[in-house]
UniProtKB/TrEMBL annotation:
<keyword id="KW-0378">Hydrolase</keyword>
<dbReference type="InterPro" id="IPR036866">
    <property type="entry name" value="RibonucZ/Hydroxyglut_hydro"/>
</dbReference>
<dbReference type="InterPro" id="IPR051453">
    <property type="entry name" value="MBL_Glyoxalase_II"/>
</dbReference>
<feature type="domain" description="Metallo-beta-lactamase">
    <location>
        <begin position="13"/>
        <end position="191"/>
    </location>
</feature>
<protein>
    <submittedName>
        <fullName>MBL fold metallo-hydrolase</fullName>
    </submittedName>
</protein>
<keyword id="KW-0479">Metal-binding</keyword>
<keyword id="KW-0862">Zinc</keyword>
<dbReference type="InterPro" id="IPR001279">
    <property type="entry name" value="Metallo-B-lactamas"/>
</dbReference>
<dbReference type="Pfam" id="PF00753">
    <property type="entry name" value="Lactamase_B"/>
</dbReference>
Amino acid sequence: MLRIEQLKTGIIQENCYLIFNEKSLLIVDPGAEDQRLIHEIDKIGRKPEAILLTHTHYDHIGAVESLRKHFDIPVYVSPLEQEWLGDPRLNLSGLARHDDMADIIVQPAEHEFEMKEYEIGGMAFTVVPTPGHSIGSVSFIFDDFVVTGDALFKGSIGRTDLYTGNMEQLLHSIRTYLFTLPDEFPAYPGHGDATTIEHEKRTNPFFQ
């Protein structure tokens, strides 16, 4: 049985997720506050195996380099956003209007996602494309929940006014890959509270 822990990080309160079984742990979107994340991971007491990225906007990747080095683990990213990791213009850190923010430059990810099933540390999940917020956005479907990044939020969807954003594409992504999941599935977004597929199908204003 997998467990998932949500940690809100950084100025924008991005959701980093720690997903773990009895032995291993996956880190999803470590956005900021690297020392706090390391402390929480150490408290859980499972072996970190990898960092998984739903997309590469700055608020989702700010602690990647620190955690990768500290735990000596690989990073997985969409091939469509591999180059964004090292380019502050593309990951938007160079455009963010936060006085104390330095440009975020992350070294290339060791692995580029294929849209298929993976098993890492005894944890199986399927990577599906959910572009529209950004061209390389993906979601992770586990046995009984989904991590949606900035595609689907509780009562909303991701912004589509940023580079490579596309409203039609995002709505299609959600309908095709997320709303076809079981109604009872919890959905864990990149910002805000968790929701369920049924709740969003029934009440999300973008789909009524």
